[in-house]
Design goal:
The structure holds two protein chains of two kinds. Chain A is an all-alpha fold. Helices cover 76% and strands 1% of the residues of chain A. The radius of gyration of chain A is 25 Å and the shape is flat. Chain B is an alpha+beta fold. Chain B is elongated and about 80 Å long. In chain B, strands 6-7-8-3-9-10 form a six-stranded mixed β-sheet, sandwiched between helices. The longest helix of chain B has 18 residues. Classes of the chains: A mainly alpha, B alpha+beta. At the A-B interface, helix 9 and helix 10 of A face strand 6 and helix 2 of B. The structure holds adenosine-5'-diphosphate (ADP) and magnesium ion. The site of adenosine-5'-diphosphate has 11 residues of chain B, from strand 2 and helix 1.
Chain lengths: 303, 355
């Protein structure tokens, strides 16, 4: 019990604890909770629920001949369009690249988070600052920096040439996009993973080793299950923004690698097909929501 | 029984940076022995245990388990298991999976491992709690799970790091008996770390007393109590009064106040020593009822502490304070604070330690 909880729990003890009193206290507690959460509720309704409803409404509307949207003649045309090969390709590619980004981040971040958790507090803090330093520079600027690094005659091609690997063109490829995404979202994987791994009692790993687990088994049977909350949180924090990423694919990906984010923007701005843009947005959101829920459920069972 | 020692430690030292946690110790633990390691906090008990388990490696020295040099063998390759000080139960597994863990890691099929785990859980009297999580159990129950989790692997040596330290007195006494019974039944060596001297005395075949990384004495409980190797051991094991003095001849010590008392020792004449007088070995008599045959000093009763089964008197001598314990027998004479008394003892009742 924390000090605060102890203080809070003291108060009712002094009065008589009848069932009526308990019920009244519970009611009061829930009313107080509601009042405190009110600003958050208002924010969510105003900036999340309302726009979401607008998006859903638009997705059933009709695009007129002039590129405008008629809020009439409700139909499922824009959802039917989702099955077209080009749209399907973009959907699959986006999911695949987001998944790849998540896995790469996980593979890089996990050993790092573990390493960090075994250092002295002073070293941990310094290294955590290093992890967060990139945030001090604008996201857009950092993406353009990668463009310079990977671009024609940039440090990357010059290095491959010097190594005798020939002039490797990485820019405007899926690889470049994944590289950019991993770079951009890696801290979102490291931080929750570190928080989860750091909490785990090192004695449990020793106990598993004492109980005949090899180093790998100790990781697989003890460390990984116990750090699952961090793995889940980190994966969601990387997967969700990667799936809807717009800036990085725009800057580092080529015309051949259109992803969902860019495609949605195109529907709204260039193609002026708002209902289709809305249905795409809705599907994107649905995928994110469903993955998140499944992931939490699955994780919840192993915790 | 096997004549090869279960654990054979030769000249082991363990340093952590500048800290010498274990300082050049030699130790042999026999197969089937209940062996206690006793010492104050920070004296290197845990470190010694961890080196046997393979969780720490010695800086120098040789460590053999049943004749096999295990110096830097990882813990999973050693036929020993540990009951950790804080139990270290896996919080994500229930009781049965905790207990079956070691077997599973050794490649025993799930069904077989669970079956053995259930039997072991019965053995430690936790039947019916197989599906509980560790966090849903009391300290005593967690302790039993930790025990079952180690024993199910049939280790040749079981290492226990202050396993009863966190339990309340009643439970601790119950578990002491149970551990002893298990050890007899299984016939394997238990290496039992504790800082509780009474626990060590009552449970062990032999005791090793440590201080500041050094091994001070390894002996049977009686010997440790009757013939402590030095002042520290005398003071640490049980209660004692240490009367400073110098050796006058092989059977006489001259105390700090000039009184001569009879006490056998093999120290050279003139050596500074202390006479260790256990509180229960001294007798109190009114000043004039002198007791003959032994040694005696005069003092004044300063305090009386009632313990139920005994009374402990604080006695003020001219040059130091003593504690004397008298069993609470019917008819025992009571000595009021302020009474002039003589403290007497039999010369066989004391031991002389370097001091
Ligand atoms: N990992 C470690 N790093 C540095 N010092 C340690 C470490 N482990 C133990 N020590 C030191 O070694 C000494 C013995 O510790 P320990 O074996 O845990 O004592 P005990 O179990 O008898 O209380 C202590 O001074 C402790 O501070
Ligand atoms: Mg210890």
């Amino acid at each position: 019990m924390t000090v605060v909880e102890a203080l809070l729990s003291q108060e009712p003890d002094e009065r008589e604890a009848t069932p009526e009193f308990e019920a009244a206290a519970a009611r009061q507690e829930s009313r107080r909770g509601f009042l405190m959460a009110l600003p958050a509720y208002a924010y969510l309704v105003l900036f999340f629920a309302v726009p979401l409803i607008i998006v859903i409404v638009y997705s059933f509307a009709t695009r007129n001949r002039f590129g405008g949207t008629d809020l009439s003649g409700w139909n499922l045309d824009s959802y039917a369009k989702l099955g077209e090969p080009i749209v399907r390709d973009i959907l699959f590619r986006s999911v695949w690249l987001a998944l790849l980004t998540t896995i790469i981040c996980l593979v890089i971040a996990y050993p790092f988070a573990y390493f960090l958790s075994t250092r002295s507090p002073a070293i941990r803090n310094v290294m955590l600052v290093f992890v967060m330093i990139p945030f001090w520079t604008n996201f857009l600027v950092r993406n353009y920096a990668w463009r310079v690094i990977l671009g024609n005659d940039g440090p990357f091609t010059r290095t491959t040439e010097a190594l005798g690997l020939g002039e490797q063109e990485l820019l405007f490829s899926q690889t470049a996009v994944v590289l950019g995404l991993v770079y951009g979202y890696l801290p979102f994987m490291i931080l929750p993973l570190y928080a989860a791994v750091e909490r785990i009692d090192h004695g449990l790993l020793e106990a598993s080793r004492d109980l005949y687990a090899s180093g790998y088994q100790s990781f697989r049977r003890v460390l990984l299950p116990l750090s699952m909350p961090g793995v889940i949180a980190g994966s969601i924090l990387v997967f969700v923004p990667s799936l809807g990423a717009y800036v990085t694919p725009e800057i580092l990906g080529g015309a051949k690698t259109t992803l969902l984010g860019s495609y949605i923007v195109t529907q709204f701005l260039t193609a002026r097909n708002w209902p289709f843009g809305a249905s795409l947005s809705f599907v994107l959101m649905a995928i994110m929501l469903v993955t998140t829920i499944i992931y939490f459920r699955k994780g919840g069972r192993t915790l | 029984m096997n004549s090869t020692p279960a654990v054979d430690i030769k000249g082991i030292t363990k340093r952590f940076g500048d800290v010498v946690a274990v300082d050049n110790i030699d130790l042999e633990i026999a197969d089937g022995e209940f062996f206690a390691m006793l010492g104050p906090s920070g004296c290197g008990k845990t470190t010694t245990l961890r080196m046997i388990a393979g969780l720490d490696f010695p800086t120098t020295g040789s460590l053999k388990i049943f004749g096999e040099e295990v110096g830097t063998l990882p813990p999973n390759k050693r036929p020993v298991n540990t009951v950790f000080q804080n139990y270290a139960l896996f919080p994500h597994l229930n009781v049965i999976d905790n207990v079956a863990f070691g077997l599973r890691m050794q490649g025993v099929a799930k069904a077989g491992a669970r079956k053995q785990a259930v039997e072991m859980i019965e053995l430690v009297h936790l039947g019916g709690l197989e599906n509980r999580k560790a966090s849903q159990m009391s300290g005593g129950q967690q302790q039993r799970v930790a025990l079952a989790r180690a024993l199910v692997n049939h280790p040749k040596v079981l290492l226990l790091d202050e396993p009863l330290g966190a339990l309340d007195l009643k439970l601790r006494q119950e578990m002491q008996g149970e551990l002893k019974r298990l050890q007899k039944e299984l016939g394997i060596s238990f290496v039992f770390v504790t800082h509780d001297q009474e626990e060590a005395l009552t449970m062990s075949d032999r005791i090793a007393v440590m201080d500041e990384g050094k091994l001070l004495q390894v002996a049977k409980p009686e010997e440790i109590y009757e013939r402590p190797a030095n002042r520290f051991v005398a003071d640490f094991i049980g209660q004692t009064n240490l009367l400073d003095g110098t050796v006058e001849d092989a059977s006489t010590v001259c105390l700090a106040n000039g009184a001569r008392v009879r006490a056998k020792s093999s120290f050279p004449v003139g050596e500074k020593v202390a006479v260790s007088l256990r509180p229960e070995r001294a007798q109190i008599a009114q000043r004039d009822d002198a007791v003959d045959g032994g040694s005696a000093v005069d003092g004044v009763v300063e305090s009386v502490t009632y313990l139920g089964n005994a009374r402990v008197y604080g006695i003020k001598l001219d040059w130091m304070d003593l504690e004397v314990r008298e069993e609470n027998r019917p008819g025992a004479t009571l000595h009021e604070p302020g009474s002039q008394v003589t403290i007497a003892w039999d010369s066989e009742a004391v031991s002389v330690v370097a001091g």
